[in-house]
Amino acid sequence: MQVYHFTEQPYFPAWNNHQGSLRVNLPNSVMDPKTAGDLFHRYYDEWKLADELGFNIMVNEHHQTATCMSSTVIVGLSVLARETKNARLLVLGYPIGHRPDPLRCAEELATIDVVSRGRLDMGFIKGVPYEFPASNQNPVGVMDRFWESHDFILKAMTHQGEPFNWEGEHFHYRQVNIWPRPVQAPHPPVWTTTGSTTQAKLLGGKGYVMATLGSGYATRPLQDAYRAGYEAKWKRPAPPDRFAYLGLVATAATETEARRRGELVAGYLRSSSIVHVPFRNPPGFLSVDDNARMLRGMTPPRSYTKDGRVISMHSGSVQDLIDAGILFCGTPDQVYQQIVDFTEYCGGLGNLLMMGHAGFLSHEDTVSNLTIFAKEVMPRLKAYKQPEPQSVAA
Amino acid sequence: MDREEKHNKIERKGGCMSVGAGAMTSIAVNGTTIELTDRGHGRPILFLHPGIGIDPEAPVLKALERGGRVIAPSHPGFGTSQLPKGMSSVDDVSYFYLDLLDQLDLDDVLVIGAGLGGWIAAEIAVKDASRFSALVMANAIGVKIGDRETRDIVDIWSLMPDEFNKLAYHDPKNGERDYKTLPEAESLAAARNREAYARLAWSPYMHNPKLKNRLHRVGVPTLFLWGTADRILSETYGRGYCALIPDARFETIERAGHFPHIEQPDEFASRALGFADAQRQAAPRSRRA
Hints:
CATH architecture of chain B: 3-Layer(aba) Sandwich
Number of strands of chain B: 9
Distance between the termini of chain B: 9 Å
Number of helices of chain B: 9
Radius of gyration of chain A: 20 Å
CATH topology of chain B: Rossmann fold
Number of strands of chain A: 11
Strand content of chain A: 5-15%
Order of helices and strands of chain A: EHEHEHEHHEEEHEHEHHHHEHEH
Shape of chain A: globular
Oligomer: heterodimer
Largest sheet of chain A: 8 strands, parallel, barrel
CATH superfamily of chain A: Luciferase-like domain
Strand content of chain B: 15-25%
Order of helices and strands of chain B: HEEEEHEHEHEHHEHEHH
Strand order of the largest sheet of chain B: 1-2-3-5-4-6-7-8-9
Largest sheet of chain B: 9 strands, mixed
Helix content of chain B: 25-40%
CATH architecture of chain A: Alpha-Beta Barrel
Strand order of the largest sheet of chain A: 1-2-3-4-7-8-9-11
Radius of gyration of chain B: 18 Å
Distance between the termini of chain A: 27 Å
Structural class of chain A: alpha/beta
CATH class of chain A: Alpha Beta
Number of helices of chain A: 13
């Protein structure tokens, strides 16, 4: 199992100073740029430590929010391409349906791949609902735009020889010829996220790494849909390395201390839902059927414990979050066992995307969390034998 | 051919129109089937609905029926109307309606557009208004009036439903819908309408930057009917819009907001029909007559 350390690089000092929205419309006057600088350096230091401890690294971006100061993954990747030596650098993700210029995306990512000497994993994502007011891209049809951008970026990265032409529905170029092209051939691995079984099946057909974020014990149907798509195309069961899962991690020498850290990292979940309500569901982001169901007052629960109990991801207790597979928390033995249990439930999980820092967890606690995990959990996860890839009936 | 004969001919040509429940029918235009209300007889009145869609039983349609044959389609992508591939702008929709007018061979049409429907009507009229007898624009969107840092039109997609109702209606109760107690088809149509509206109007927000410089081409008698309690659009916006269309009149409707056809349907219909009748008496105008 590969393990990635991730933080959203939050500006948590503003979390107690909002009028019901931490995203989109929280005035930036509540942020002190000097403090922001301190926090950025702190998070880069923690990623550098993660590299030294044997973790891979995951970065992301959001816009106009105190939950995540990274507004462009390229800045973080640029710093880390030089500051780290061994870690895979996963961007999860790059909201390419929002970007006005996929040529620029291809150039930036190819350059990161070259400078990092081939350590880039490219996660392309649709993006959360709150990104649309910032990018102003139309949420209606964003996935059409996403896929054209995806097709273009991969062609730009793999094409050699005479410049090529692109006159699509959304993007137009006349002399495409990126310098440099990526060092990983044919291109850096493609990752993405989804919460839909239809999309999961499609991703299986493409063979991309499919990540789910905080989906806990509701993950399996997505992975099985992926497996069906994968097997139909590739004529073999999907191996565990095609799956990734993002969970929060809080470990310590004692369970009491680990639970204290668990409360702090759960602050991520408790803050991420604080958004002015209309920004949570722009028109066209969800399907018509889903929106009609919501108008009729039906909102399907999304988080379950292993035994089927519905919990709230945003207000559940630490124990609820552990039971739901959203938070791995406890002593190293407990955390190892929780991760293995979850992996067995998944039928194999090749990549753990671990929020080793979140919420109000201090630098000292984060360093300790990462160090204990690296020394006492990671070696056992590396040695752990994944379940045999499972065939699913088509 | 006199008017009666011509309308009979339309009915026959409308073999592609299938009669549904009550006055609801559907029509296929270039392979795209849309739903529409078609009620009454006489002079054709095309009612183009706002972004929230149209209720086939809306009192305004019955009130307008006093003045002719009311044709009230759901725009492509709205209600149960199909959405043709590639249709993503009001410009596209305006060509769809030019095709519809040709297919039905309607002349001397009183075209009434409310909100988004006004924008569509204006986009049709700058291209070809030869089938129009008069144009009524009710609290219409579609142009940029203020400077680049002035938001002419409230960002409706950043509002809660109750906030929207407070700004859009003279009496916010007129906008309330409890979909939990309504048939499932109502919530499906509402969800489709919301998506279809954003498809056309997300960005540039609720306007076409090019339209302003084309409105001088609207050579048809035009009336702006403006609900004075509209706090989505200001009256200043409406008057600015009106000034871009040659000789257009501006009138207000009291106790009505962004949707005067909903809040004051009889007054709305009387004013629209009265305007159209006055134009007819002054000079029959259809170039095709």
